[in-house]
Amino acid sequence: MIYPALPSRLGKRGTLVVPPNGERLGFTITDEIRRVQSDLPSKIIVLERVLFDNGHIELRLGYYIIGKKPKMYGKWVWGQYATFLPLCDFAAIVQEAQRLGWF
Predict the structure, then answer these.
(1) Residue 59 maps to a domain
(2) Which of 26, 35, 59, 69 lies in the 20 to 30 Å Cα band around 52?
(3) Is 2 a member of any domain?
(4) d(CA 79, CA 63)
(5) Does a structural domain hold residue 81?
(6) What is the mean pLDDT of residues 91-98?
(7) How many domains does the chain have?
(8) What three-state secondary structure class fits 16?
């Protein structure tokens, strides 16, 4: 099956709501690493470098999968649960982050 292109999220803004007080923190995605999961081509693992408005930098590990419900069928959908991924894929993402000087 041929999957659609996944647009870049570089420069996208977002908001994080911090419990328990509900403080809102704005952030921008400054870089991203993507990798098609080696044993599941309908899943793309993403490591995002996130810059918060207060200057703090964090990393977010997530994934996209191809939607199966009618409204999102055949489109990339952000995963809503913690991801499982093969060790080789995780190692490759970490090596790429090191190569890019993220840490």
Answers:
(1) yes
(2) 35
(3) no
(4) 5
(5) yes
(6) 97
(7) 1
(8) strand
| Residues 74-84: tens digit of each pLDDT | 899 999 899 99
Concatenated DSSP letters for 39-74? T-TTEEEEEEEEEETTS-EEEEEEEEEEB-SGGGBT
Q: Which residues contact 40 (CB under 8 A, 6 or more apart)?
A: none
Find tokens 């995605």 and name the residue.
Answer: 29
Residue 8 domain-assigned? no
Question: What pLDDT, in 10s, does the model give residues 33-76?
Answer: 999 999 999 999 999 999 999 999 999 999 999 999 999 998 99
Angstrom distances, CA of residue 54 to CA of 13, 25, 30, 47, 70:
14, 8, 14, 21, 40
Closest CA to 27 of 41, 36, 17: 17
Instruction: Determine contact, residues 97/59, Cβ cutoff 8 Å.
Output: yes
